[in-house]
Here is the input.
Amino acid sequence: MTDYALTLDEVCCPPALDLVSLALLPGEIIGIVGPSGAGKTTLLRVAAGLVVPERGTVRCDAAGYAPEGPVFPPALTVREILAYYARFHTTGRARRALVHDALELAGLAPAADTRSAALGRDLHKLALAQAVLGGRRVLLLDETLSGLDPLARRDLCARVAHLAATGVAVLLAARDLGALERVAGRVLVLRAGRIVRAGPLAALLAERVLEVILDTPPPEPPPGFRVTAAGIEAPLAGRTPEAALALCHAHRLAVRASRVRVKSLEEIVLDAHDVR
Here is the structure.
């Protein structure tokens, strides 16, 4: 039997979640995406045990949770804040070791004696450090990788990937799709509290689209196509570009040019959002 680090089985938490199921393996990173109000934060809070679902079951190994918009006592230093949280895990010399390890894992060692009020965007790192304290085997990260400059995002992505390589399971909600493309192995797209798309990131990003440039706008696009600014386009799931072009010619469309491209993660998310 597979030993999952986290499982949610048909979890209902109205109005935010409706029959959500997922299973997260040790060392796996799953990205959760979707529009505001889709249920991403509620899903993480249910997994963390902070919200009790109305129905369904949740099983989670020892988890660390980093909320969106973390708030820490502004007058305390990074080291003092982590030392406070470490009190709940161990005492004495072992506590200092926990703080040291958390500082290193989050890349905050140079800022250990900086007051949290002066951290700026490095608050994301402090939230991560607090979440990993005590050797947590599951990390629940809510927008931890969002709102960063490119260098900071790359650094934090590398740190999350390193944690996953040591066997830590990561469930990550993010608006920053570029960050997800760096680290996620699987992606779940939420809409109105339901998972509407899911799959390995590599498979999702391998989906192809045929773009067709027309001389004149079509009176009505062929089945499976949609109108764009330059002409029409259609996904190539289950058919060749030649077959799709033949359909255009059968509808007597004046095709000027065409090309095949792969979908971006943003397009996949928007397409899932548009499904009714």
Remarks:
- The two ends are 36 Å apart (CA to CA).
- DSSP finds nine helices and 13 strands in the chain.
